[in-house]
Amino acid sequence: GILSALGNFLAQMIEKKRKKENSRSLDVGGPLRYAVYGGKTPQPSPPR
């Protein structure tokens, strides 16, 4: 639903940022993407 669409949007934004600033986003983008994709799975995740 809305959450997965929002997660998709966030993932795209993170990917674009990662391409622009590779070195810095590798630290931040990894956990962020993990959290975003983790939210798509059935297992519960903390609300953002």
From TrEMBL:
Region (Disordered), start-end ranges: 17-48
Source taxon at top rank: Eukaryota
The protein's name: PXMP2 isoform 3
